[in-house]
Amino acid sequence: MRILGLDVGSKTVGIAMSDEFGWTAQGLETLKINEEENVFGFNEIGKIIKDNEVSKVVVGFPKNMNGTIGPRGKASQFYARELEDRFGVQTILWDERLTTVAAERVLIEADVSRKKRKKVIDKMAAVMILQGYLNSQN
User: Fold this and answer.
1) Global pTM value
2) Helix or strand (DSSP H, E) at 100
3) What Rg do the C-alpha atoms of the chain give, in angstroms?
4) Residues in domain YqgF/RNase H-like (predicted)?
5) Distance from the first to the final alpha carbon of the chain
């Protein structure tokens, strides 16, 4: 059974998946969504869950720096509830404060161009979210 990691934004969802042992996270893709038009990509996520026998989904939970939950955090809570209701998978909200900043720093250090960073930043953030969770379990 695999574990899926998601970095949910208002326009994209970065997707990562664990190996079968739950040791490492690999980036899969960045899914385009449109929160304003209620296009959340649930069909695509559901297909990934089904095709890969995903048992658990770790959803990045962007708390404010003072620990409170703002609009993006509430959006992540909604996304996690929808995944549970639609696909019967367990979801875990994982504190992702500064994950995107860390992902961007890694990509800059790897000398990835700004144009290419924009295409992979959300997927990289999903990898960091999922790997953080996996590390806490092992």
Assistant:
1) 0.87
2) helix 99-109
3) 14
4) 1-103
5) 16
Which of 125, 126, 134, 131 lies closest to 105, judged by CA?
Answer: 125
Give pLDDT tens digits for 24-81.
999 999 999 999 999 999 999 999 999 999 999 999 998 877 888 888 999 999 999 9
CA–CA separation, 25 and 130 (whole Å): 6
How far is 17 from 54, CA to CA, in rounded Å? Answer: 9
Q: Is the Cβ–Cβ distance between 91 and 42 less than 8 Å?
A: no
The number of beta carbons lying within 10 Å of the beta carbon of residue 41 is 18
Locate 97 and state its tokens. 């404060």
Is pLDDT at 112 greater than 90 in this prediction?
Answer: no
- The C-alpha atoms of residue 24 and residue 89 are separated, in whole angstroms, by 20
Q: Are 62 and 96 in contact (CB under 8 A)?
A: yes
The total number of residues shown for the chain amounts to 138
Question: At the topology level of CATH, where does 2-137 sit?
Answer: Nucleotidyltransferase; domain 5 (3.30.420)
